[in-house]
Amino acid sequence: MLVNSRSEDTPRPGAGSTSPRRVGAPGPSKHPILGAHAPTRAELNALERVMYRSQWLLIGDDNKRVVGVRSLDEARAGIAAGTAPTAAGRLADGLLGADIDAEDPLIGDACAEALIAWCVRVGVPYLLRDSGRPGGRHVLAVITNSAVPVDEWRKLCQQLARDYKVVVDDRTGRALRLLTAPHRIGLPSPVLACTITTAVAMDAVHAAGGQRRPSKRRRSSANGKVSLARRSGDRSSSEYGLACALARLDYTRDEAHAELVELGGKTFERTKRWFVRYLWLSALTVVAAERGLTQADAWLLAQRDCAAECRRQGITWWRGLWDRAVAEAATDRPRRRRITVAERVDPDLGADVDDLAALRTGLGEAVAAVLADLDPRRRHSAHAALYALAPALAGREGSMSQRDLSVRSKLDHKTVRVVLMLAVERGLLVRVHGYAGGAKDCDSYAPGPAAEHYISAAREGSSPTSCSTPAPTGNCARSRLRRTYAADRKRWRLRCDALAALAPGERLATSKHPAAKTLRSLWHQRKWWRELSDAERADRIAVRREVLASLHRSEYHAWIGWLRKREEISEAAVRIHKQPTLADLSVVAAAPSTIHRGLCAPPWRTQATKPAAGQLELAAA
Q1: Which of 454, 563, 573 shows the shortest CA–CA distance to 516?
Q2: Among 190, 189, 265, 184, which residue's Cα sits nearest to residue 221?
Q3: What is the pLDDT of residue 339?
Q4: What are residue 437's DSSP bridge partners?
Q5: Cα–Cα dist 278/234, whole Å
Q6: What is the pLDDT of residue 494?
Q7: What is the pLDDT of residues 303-349, one digit of tens each?
Q8: 240: how many CB neighbours lie within 10 A of its CB?
Q9: Helix 281-290 crosses helix 295-305 at what angle (to 10 degrees)?
Q10: pLDDT tens-digit map of 154-183
Q11: Strand, coil or helix: what is 226?
C-alpha cells in the first residue's frame, strides 16, 4: 500500500491472476535517494507559496466557486473566517498534477502508485495526498530538468483511467485544492508522502517561467453556443467529452455533428460516419447508462439514432461499449469530463449574461434556504424549474408557458405546475399575470420577496463560474416532452376550431347555439352521475328498470334505439374535447335538442319539452 498510510506493502497478484496489476508503492526503504516523508505544517505552508499561482478560489461545500481572491493570504483568511470551507489555486508552471477519483480505495491506491512509480523512474520528486473520498488521491510532481518526458504524464493518466475505469484527471496548469486547505465537506485529506523540497520547487518554477509559451485562445463556434478548449494532442478526447455533453442535452445526431464541425477539429476533418462510429454512438451509450436505462433500452436507443452503424458492428461489439459505459456511470462523478455547453436559449428572451448568472445564483440560494424543510427531490425540482425560468424573468418580464418551462427544465408538466404553485406560496415568485386564454397568452412571474435578498447579494458579488457542475434539470427526455406537447397543441387547436364552428363568435360556456347547449348538457350529465353515491345510483337504476318493464315492446325497442344514438353523440362530444374530426362536428350539430330530456317526456326524440314531474335524467340509464 502507500507510504505512511498503510501497515504493509501492496500484494502483487500471482501468475495467471485476472485482477488488475498494481504497482508497488515507493517508500523510503525502496528509494532512499528520494527520501519520502510526511511533511510538517510549516513545510506545507512554504511549499504552498511556491507551488501555486493565481487564480485563487474559495470553494463552497457544493464544489462551486464562492468568490475569487487576489492572494494566497486572502484565500487562507477566507477559510479561517468561514467564508468558504476550502480554497484552491492554479498549479505553477513546472509542476505536474493528477486528481484520482475512484470508488474503490484499492483502485485509487493502484493509480496513485503507478504515478509515483513513474516519478521514481524518471527521477523527479513527488507529493501524495488523500483527497477526502475513500478512493480519492492527489499526486503532484516537480519537473526538475528539461529531459523529463512531460507528455508521458498525461498519457499515463489517460491509460490508468482506461485500465481501471475511473477518473484520473490531469490537473497540470489547472486549479487544485491547496495543500493546507481542508476538504470541502470535512473529510480527512492528509499529505501522506512528500519528497519535494521548497528549494527544488522554486528552481523548477523559476526555470519553467522563462520557457512559458503564450497560451492558446479558446476557440468558439460562430453562433457562440459551444466553446471547446483544444489542447495539443488531445482533440479526440475533448470532442468526445463535448459529444457526451450534447447527448445529455438531448441534441439530435445531426445537431451534434453540426456543432462539432463548426469547431474545426477532427470531426471537421473526418466523415460523418467516423463521427457516428467513434463519438456519437459511444456518447449515446454513456448517457443511457447514466440515466439508468436497461441494456435492451439502451440498444434500442442506439439503433434509433445510429441504425446503419449498429447493423455494421452488431450487438456483440456494442456490448463492449455498454460494459464500459456502465462502469463509468457507476463512479462518484461520471460527468467529470463534461465540457461546458451553453443551453439553447431563444434569442427573443434577450437576457444579459451576467444578470442571468446572478439571478440564477440568487434563486438557487433562495430555494435552498426557503425550501429547506421539504424533501430534497422536491427542492431539486424547484431549483430546476426556477433555473429554467430565469431567462424569462431577466429578459421577457417573466412570461413563459408551462410546457416551454417543462421542456427547458426536463420536468414533467404536472411537476412544473406543483413547483410554481409552491414557489408562489413560499414567496419565491409572484404571479404578475395569469393565463386568460388563447394561444398567445401565458402566466408571467417576477421574483418574490423571499428571493429578493439572495438575488441582490448575488448581483453585488462576482459572477460565479463552474467548470463541471451541470445545470439543475429533471430526468425527463426533452425529445419525449416535445413530441407530447406538439400533439397536445395540435389537439388543442383542433378543439378550438371545432368549438368555434359549433358556437361562432361565442364562448362555449355562454353560447346559445344548439350544439354548444348539447355539449354543455352532456358534460353536466356525466358530472352529475359521477357525483352520485353508489346507493343513489343503485336506487335510480332500480326505478329505471321498473319503468322499462312497464313499457310496450315497441316503445321499449324505440327507447333502446335512441340510447344507442345518444351514445354515438356522447362519444363524438368526448372526441371533440380530445381530437375532433369533421364527422364529430356534424354528429353533435345534428343532435336533437331534447337529448338532455328523460324517458318520461313523450316527444323526447323530436322537440324540446319541459320535464314532467318525477322525470328521470338520461344519465341514469
Answers
A1: 573
A2: 265
A3: 40
A4: none
A5: 15
A6: 65
A7: 888 888 888 888 888 888 898 888 877 764 544 444 444 344 444 45
A8: 20
A9: 150
A10: 899 989 988 888 889 888 888 899 998 998
A11: strand
How many Å is the maximal CA-CA distance in the chain?
115
The CA distance from 154 to 281, in Å, is 25
pLDDT of residue 312: 86
Q: Which of 102, 113, 89 is nearest to 22 (CA)?
A: 113
Contact 153, 122 (CB under 8 A): no
Q: pLDDT tens digit string along 368-387?
A: 998 888 888 888 999 999 99
Q: What is the mean pLDDT of the chain?
A: 76
Between CA 340 and CA 346, with CA 345 as vertex, the angle to 5 degrees is 160
pLDDT digits (tens, 9 = 90+) for 198-239: 888 888 888 876 444 444 444 433 333 333 433 334 566 778
Mean pLDDT of 451-469: 69
- Confidence grade of residue 418 (pLDDT, cut at 50, 70, 90): very high
Cell matching residue 148: 523529463
Supply the DSSP string of 494-530, one letter for each residue.
Answer: HHHHHHHHHSTTS-TTT---HHHHHHHHHHHHHHHHH
Cell 453585488 -> residue: 460
Reduced to 3 states (helix: H, G, I; strand: E, B; else coil), residue 340 is coil
CA distance 412 to 91: 44
List the beta bridge partners of residue 430: 446
- Average pLDDT score over residue span 418-435: 88
Evaluate if residue 144 carries a pLDDT over 90: no
Count CA within 13 A, CB hemisphere, residue 381. 21
CA 510 to chain centre: 45
Q: How many residues does the chain have?
A: 621
Q: What b/e sequence results for 414-437 when a residue is b if at least 16 CB atoms lie within 10 Å of its CB, and e otherwise?
A: ebbebbbebbeebebbbbeeeeee
Are the C-beta atoms of 181 and 108 separated by less than 8 Å?
no
pLDDT value at residue 147: 86
b/e burial code for range 206-234 (CB count within 10 A of at least 16 → b): eebeeeeeeeeeeeebeeeebebeeeeee
Asked whether 26 and 54 are in contact (CB, 8 A), the reply is no
- In 3D space, the residue among 288, 349, 355 whose CA is nearest the CA of residue 318 turns out to be 288
pLDDT score of 416 more than 70: yes
d(CA 27, CA 4): 8
Element (H, E) at 187: none
In the numeric block, which cell numbers belong to residue 486? 406538439
**β-sheet bridge partners, residue 182:** none
> Which residue's C-alpha cell is 508503492?
25
DSSP conformation letters of 370-437: HTTTS-HHHHHHHHHHHHHHHHHHHHSTTB--HHHHHHHHT--HHHHHHHHHHHHHTTSEEEEE---S
Count of CB atoms situated within 10 Å of the CB of 314: 9
- Burial (0-12, 13-18, 19+ Cβ within 10 Å), 294: exposed
Does residue 354 carry a pLDDT above 90?
Answer: no
Contact 107, 167 (CB under 8 A): no
